[in-house]
Sequence to fold (129 residues):
Amino acid sequence: MGELKHAQCFRDLVVYQKAQCVARQIFLLTREFPQEERYSLTDQVRRSSRSVGAQIAEAWAKRRYKKHFVSKLTDADGEQRETQHWIDSAHDCEYITDQQRNALMSDLAEIGRMLGAMMQKADSFCVAD
Fold:
């Protein structure tokens, strides 16, 4: 995969950059959520969205071990799917618009596809001992 040849660290990965962008968008959107959601929906969606990038960073650090690398990418994918759930909840509560929901879901689905491709081609990302 082309990303590895150019990536010197996890910050260079397009999937990481996209995950950080989504987390930032979610942070900005959730500042408008009602105060009573502060310790529930707001915290949950911020945590899961931020965790996607964190799991990608951890996966990068574990490239020496293919199984660990794939495991961390699987965790990142789980977090992006959890974020989808919280975005649906925010939409159901009418805290975000259809347009905001659809844009976030599209970005999250793209992140999921990219993570899936990385898992399928883990050998090209993993470094030799």
